Amino acid sequence: MPTKGKCGTITLSAASASAGALGGPGSFDVTLAGVIRPWRPISTVAWITIDAPTAAQEASGSVNYTVAPNGAGQPARSGTIFVTGDTFTVNQAAGVIG
Q1: Does an H or E element contain 1, and which?
Q2: HSE-up of 42 (CA within 13 Å, CB side)?
Q3: Which is nearest to 59 in space by CA: 34, 80, 77?
Q4: What does the pLDDT average to over 10-34?
Q5: Is the peptide bond before 53 cis (omega within 30 degrees of 0)?
Q6: Distance (Å, rounded) from C-alpha 24 to C-alpha 30?
Q7: Of 36, 29, 30, nearest to 8 (Cα)?
Q8: Cβ atoms of 36 and 28 closer than 8 Å
Q9: CB-based contact 17:91 (threshold 8 Å)
């Protein structure tokens, strides 16, 4: 869902993604329309690492992230990446035993 600001609109290419128990890389696009203020992705959980961009951006671009493996026997989990008032959710499968 686009986030409308006083200077324009920020749109994420997707609202969520799934990750397997072993984790791995993922990405989504951020599109700006008339937005002047900088944006930067922020993960709300330690098991999602933002790979790029690591500094504030002033143009459209991609967010690249890595999901850590979910431990053996651990339940499924969800985490969020915030981008200037909009959210991207990562849903990770439960950890496999054995």
Answers
A1: none
A2: 9
A3: 34
A4: 95
A5: yes
A6: 20
A7: 36
A8: no
A9: yes
pTM for the predicted model, two decimal places: 0.89
**Taking a C-beta distance cutoff of 8 angstroms, is the pair 36, 89 a contact?**
no
Amino acid identity, position 51: D
Q: How far apart are CA 23 and CA 26, in angstroms?
A: 9
Please state, in angstroms and rounded to a whole number, the distance separating the CA atoms of residues 47 and 75. Answer: 14
Q: Which residues, including other chains, have CB under 8 Å from residue 73's CB and lie 6 or more apart?
A: 94, 95, 97
Tokens of 29: 């696009």
d(CA 76, CA 58): 35
Check whether 1 has a pLDDT greater than 80.
Answer: no
The owner of tokens 């981008």 is 83
